[in-house]
Write a structure and sequence with these properties.
The complex is a heterodimer of chains A (about 575) and B (about 180). In chain A, about 40% of the residues lie in helices and about 15% in strands. Chain A is an alpha/beta fold and about 575 residues long. Chain A has three domains: about 170 residues, Thiamin diphosphate (ThDP)-binding fold, Pyr/PP domains (Rossmann fold, 3-Layer(aba) Sandwich), CATH 3.40.50.970; about 160 residues, Rossmann fold; about 170 residues, Rossmann fold (3-Layer(aba) Sandwich). A six-stranded parallel β-sheet of chain A has the order 3-2-4-5-7-6, sandwiched between helices. Chain A has a six-stranded parallel β-sheet with strand order 11-10-9-12-13-14, sandwiched between helices. In chain A, helix 3 links the parallel strand 2 and strand 3. Chain B is α+β, with helices and mostly antiparallel strands and about 180 residues long. Chain B has two domains: about 80 residues, 2-Layer Sandwich (Alpha-Beta Plaits); about 70 residues, ACT-like. Chain A, domain 2 (Alpha-Beta Plaits, 2-Layer Sandwich). Chain B is built from six helices and nine strands. In chain B, strands 5, 6, 7, 8 and 9 form a five-stranded antiparallel β-sheet that branches. Chain B has a four-stranded antiparallel β-sheet with strand order 2-3-1-4, sandwiched between helices. The longest helix of chain B has 15 residues. The radius of gyration of chain B is 21 Å and the shape is elongated. Chain B starts with 5 loop residues before the first strand and ends with a helix. The chains are: A alpha/beta (about 575), B alpha+beta (about 180). Chains A and B meet through strand 6 of A and helix 1, helix 2 and helix 6 of B. The structure holds thiamine diphosphate (TPP) and magnesium ion. Magnesium ion binds next to helix 20 of chain A.
């Protein structure tokens, strides 16, 4: 008998679990079904090594995997059956694609001899997911599993991260095969990190050094590259004011003296207006989304653009980059820091302070310290800041509460702001918070959600209940799809078409899942309620009934210039 | 002002993976870019596939399209070229009733003048092949259509570039890099 016959043969399903273990996976989020049952059977056998969190909907599994990835920096994994299980993953995959979140999704598929026959629960998930994945692949033979899984993790996590979907036919899960695992560390057609070109850095340093009104705009690239320290040094050594996109939030502490606030549609006044006054704009790991730039024809036209970016396709995609610096910003920032001279930019920075004073008077003061009776979303966030001391991870959904939370939440450390940015997926927050808490169990995780979005994935309360994940949930209830209502008020003459909601008793629902719950509608009770929420060792639900028809300002009306940001 | 649109040939070298075709065409679909011609084949390198795609877009647009294509994991390298920078051809097949070949002497002259080849002759029909520029295959189509074309089909553009592509070098670099790492 030769060596080869001696080699142990295992099922495709077992190979999958072994490959996942090799990749350091100890947890999956998912939902079982016919076409993935062999894998679930192995999960049962390997339950001492690998955990499975049963979400209440496959969409929840992808968002939980995203939350996990974003709080831990690791790859999140979601698993589902074929057909409806697979299609339910799509929203989370699309969200991960546009927000560059590393997740691997595994779907079961009908047996290979049935492919193309419209078999029960057969769906072309490869075709469906192609435009929203970084890479996808259908496995029809057990022997392919180790290599493809290792490739999947490599692709999801390297370069600009993103979602990968692997579809495995049921016969491949059953089939016995030798198991040989080799970690993937390169693919010949794929260059994840472009090689840094020193000339690009020297050229950029020159223009930065000769600038008088430079501005840094940073995005999530800083967090994805784990370049927070390099970034901070660059900011401090150059003395240049820095502003953030919504996904860049928390990479630099809120209280940092050179952190000037948020750009974009509901960003701060100064950062937006002064974008059109700077002479050099240094973009770091951001992609000039239209929610950031407003009208491109009037965006930073006076400025020379320096763009530090890992993805060559982002260079000059929306905004022409005079000085592109391709590569990993962890490296390029370090080199750039060595070449830039510290500037005294007091007059220029003074302009940010002046704008902040204006914004404070007309917007912030009213949001945080209102004189009217009704509670504002801003004061709730303020109270969370007070009790979390800026150490919590804040997970937000999509709408007014999201903008308010991102504007006012205080952060001391990175990977603390988890929100659906590019896709704006309502329903993201609750499952993402579960994943975020599991990915960073030592940290406080507070989900801030609107009454609308909450009801899109409210079933994940069941997941919290079953897994006892200590997520803190704050629903800012205005009985409206508030952000849409705001647009209806401002741009559709207050015709509130289908934005008012008759809501159920959210406290009772939470209690139905044995989650401690309370409701606040009076200012005098707010602080204590938030205190109890934060101090609770277990999951806690707090509904805050806020003013129904408040608006979020400042605001750049869609298609307008960043200069035309409205304060009211 | 609309940017001026011109014809570009995109050449893609890729792994021969099922699904890449979908991925590439999705890039055009998403941006409402009409594909004027599309062909795929084996390339000069073993196990490397080649796509040739013709589109009519502005220069800014072609750059972005190629950046997006090249970003795909299974794409080794993508290029774009103007017509001047490539040697390109299309092939066309024309099926004509045999009776007209004998009844209409003119047809024989058309075939001779156009330097087309007769591929097959049968009692019922004959098939002509013509390879060349679009205007040549088009002219022949117009000329023959007077005599009743039974079928006409034209291939996608195939093209080679005047400048070298350097794909083997990219693949060799990767191989050497990997050896170093091992
Ligand atoms: C899945 C999904 N459907 C629709 C929308 C459009 N949308 C954006 S914000 C919003 C309203 C959100 O309402 P709510 O969750 O109550 O938050 P609020 O704005 O009131 O804070 C809607 C409907 C979306 N972003 N996502
Ligand atoms: Mg609401």
């Amino acid at each position: 008998m030769n060596m080869k016959d001696n080699k142990l043969k295992i099922s495709g399903a077992e190979s999958l679990i072994r490959a996942l273990l090799e990749e350091g996976v100890d947890l999956l989020f998912g939902y079982p079904g016919g076409a993935i049952m062999p894998v679930y059977d192995e999960l049962y056998k390997f339950s001492d090594k690998i955990d499975h969190i049963l979400t209440r909907h496959e969409q929840g599994a992808t968002h939980a995997a995203q939350g996990y990835a974003r709080s831990s920096g690791k790859v999140g994994v979601a698993i589902a059956t074929s057909g409806p299980g697979a299609t339910n993953l799509v929203t989370g995959i699309a969200d991960a694609q546009i927000d560059s979140t590393p997740i691997v999704c595994i779907t079961g598929q009908v047996a290979s001899h049935l492919l193309g026959s419209d078999a029960f629960q057969e769906t072309d998930i490869i075709g469906i997911s192609t435009p929203v994945t970084k890479w996808n692949y259908q496995i029809t033979k057990a022997s392919e599993i180790p290599d493809i899984i290792s490739k999947a993790f490599y692709i999801a996590s390297s370069g600009r991260p993103g979602p990968v979907l692997i579809d495995i036919t049921k016969d491949a899960q059953f089939e016995f095969c030798e198991y040989n695992y080799k970690k993937c560390n390169g693919i010949r057609s794929y260059l994840p990190v472009p090689k840094l070109q020193n000339e690009q850095i020297t050229e950029a340093a020159k223009v930065i050094n000769s600038s008088e009104k430079p501005l840094i705009v940073w995005g999530q690239g800083v967090i994805l590259a784990e370049a927070e320290n390099e970034f901070k040094e660059f900011v401090e050594n150059s003395g240049i004011p820095a502003v953030w996109t919504i996904l860049g939030l928390s990479a630099l502490p809120t209280e940092h003296p050179l952190n000037m606030g948020m750009v974009g549609m509901h960003g701060n006044y100064g950062p937006n207006v002064l974008t059109n006054e700077c002479d050099v704009l240094i973009a770091v790991g951001m992609r000039f989304d239209d929610r950031v730039t407003g009208d491109l024809k009037t965006y930073a036209k006076q400025a020379k653009i320096v763009h530090l970016e890992i993805d060559p396709a982002e260079i000059s995609k929306n905004v022409y980059a005079h000085y592109p610096i391709l590569g990993d910003c962890k490296e390029s920032l370090k080199k750039l820091t060595n070449l830039v001279k510290k500037k005294s930019l007091n007059n220029w920075i003074g302009l940010f302070d002046n704008h902040m004073k204006i914004e404070y008077k007309s917007v912030i003061e009213k949001d945080l310290f209102p004189s009217k009776d009704g509670l504002t979303m801003g004061e709730v966030i303020n109270s969370i800041n007070k009790h979390s001391k800026g150490d919590a991870i804040i997970v937000t959904d999509v709408g007014q509460h999201q903008m308010v939370a991102c504007r006012y939440a205080k952060f001391n450390s990175s990977k603390s702001n988890i929100t659906s940015g590019g896709l704006g997926t309502m329903g993201f927050a609750l499952p993402a918070a579960i994943g975020a808490k599991i990915g960073a169990s030592h940290r406080e995780v507070v989900a801030v959600i609107g009454d609308g979005g909450y009801q899109m994935t409210i079933q994940e309360l069941g997941t919290i209940f079953q897994t006892k994940t200590a997520v803190k949930i704050v629903v800012l209830n205005n009985d409206y799809l508030g952000m849409v209502r705001q647009w209806q008020q401002l741009f559709f003459d207050k015709r509130y078409a289908s934005t008012e909601m008759v809501n159920p008793d959210f406290v009772k629902i939470a209690e139905g899942y044995s989650i401690q719950a309370s409701r606040v509608s009076d200012r005098k009770n707010l602080d204590n309620a938030v205190k109890l929420l934060i101090e609770s060792k277990d999951a806690f639900f707090l509904e805050v009934c806020v003013e129904k028809e408040d608006n979020v300002f400042p605001m750049i009306p869609s298609g307008a210039s960043v200069s035309d940001i409205r304060l009211k | 002002m609309e940017e001026e649109k011109i014809q570009y040939t995109i050449s893609i070298y890729s792994e021969n993976n099922v699904g890449l075709l979908n991925r590439v065409s999705a890039i055009f679909l998403k941006r409402h870019v009409n594909i004027m011609s599309f062909s795929t084949s084996q390339s000069e390198i073993k196990d490397v596939f080649r796509f040739v795609i013709v589109v009519s877009v502005s220069e800014i647009q072609i750059k972005k399209l190629v950046q997006q294509i090249e970003k795909q994991v299974d794409v080794i390298k993508a290029f774009y070229h103007t017509d001047k920078e490539t040697i390109f051809l299309e092939s066309a097949l024309y099926k004509v009733k045999s009776s007209s070949l004998f009844e209409e002497r003119q047809i024989q002259n058309i075939i001779k003048d156009s330097h087309a080849n007769i591929v097959t002759v049968s009692p019922e029909f004959f098939v002509i092949e013509k390879t060349g520029f679009r205007k040549d295959t088009e002219k022949l189509r117009e000329d023959l259509s007077k005599y009743g074309l039974l079928q006409f089909v034209r291939s996608g553009r195939i093209s080679v570039t005047k400048a070298p592509m350097g794909i083997s070098q990219i693949l060799n670099n990767f191989k050497n890099q990997n050896k170093k790492n091992e």
